[in-house]
Specification:
Elements: E1 2-6, H1 16-24, H2 39-52, H3 57-64, H4 73-83, E2 85-93, H5 94-103, E3 108-116, E4 122-126, H6 132-142, E5 146-151, H7 157-162, E6 165-169, H8 173-178, E7 184-185, H9 188-198
Parallel strand pairs: 1-2, 1-5, 2-3, 5-6, 6-7
Antiparallel strand pairs: 3-4
Length: 199
């Protein structure tokens, strides 16, 4: 029995923080897990910048409401779900992801939560578990699933390495160079065909 585990940002939807960086005019917020492998460090740094600039959760959500899935992403996801079960595994947060999941037809999503203070600022993060993508993949394997995993960033590599098949999708040149053992795709049709072959 197979189950496919997909990263969300960069694979199905644009990077939220890059979009917010452009809208807010704060270029340093464009850093993502493609640049900083330590997600906890990255998020604490982002939260600090938001507070310094007086930006609240609602400001980020306003940008997210205007983000659409990557062209072809919903069709890819629909076609993949006709073949097998799919879970979106993301380090994002439920307060960010909901409008994006609606536009993708409500796929199953495992993510984290933001802790919001009384003024509406992001105060902290509540991670679902340590190494959430790897832990989830191992949990699925422990109940009888063979996992196939795909992502674009450093924080996806653990689940890719632990799965029976792993792929990079629209990743960076550096990650593709450092991990040549994983087939890398830029096009949804080729990506879908490769996953089907691995099922």
């Amino acid at each position: 029995m197979n189950i496919v585990c997909l990263d969300m940002e960069g694979v199905l939807v644009p990077e939220i923080w890059i979009a917010f960086s452009k809208e807010s005019g704060i270029p340093e917020l464009s850093r993502t897990t493609r640049d900083e492998p330590d997600y906890d460090k990255l998020m604490k740094w982002r939260i600090g910048i938001l507070r310094e600039r007086g930006l609240k959760l609602s400001d980020v959500q306003d940008t997210i409401s205007r983000i659409d899935p990557l062209p072809g992403a919903k069709e890819f996801l629909d076609a993949l779900r006709e073949e097998t079960q799919v879970i979106v595994l993301s380090d994002t947060f439920s307060q960010f992801a909901k409008p994006l999941m609606k536009k993708l037809g409500w796929p199953a999503l495992f993510c984290n939560e933001l802790i919001i203070d009384e003024e509406g600022y992001i105060a902290d993060i509540r991670m679902r578990c340590d190494h959430s993508k790897l832990t989830t993949v191992r949990g699925l394997q422990s109940i009888g699933f063979d996992t196939i995993a795909a992502g674009d960033s450093y924080n996806d590599l653990e689940m890719i390495e632990a799965s029976k098949a792993g792929f990079l999708f629209r990743s960076t040149d550096q990650i593709r160079k450092d991990y040549p053992q994983y087939p890398a795709f830029e096009d949804y049709d080729e990506f879908l065909a490769a996953i089907k072959d691995a099922l």
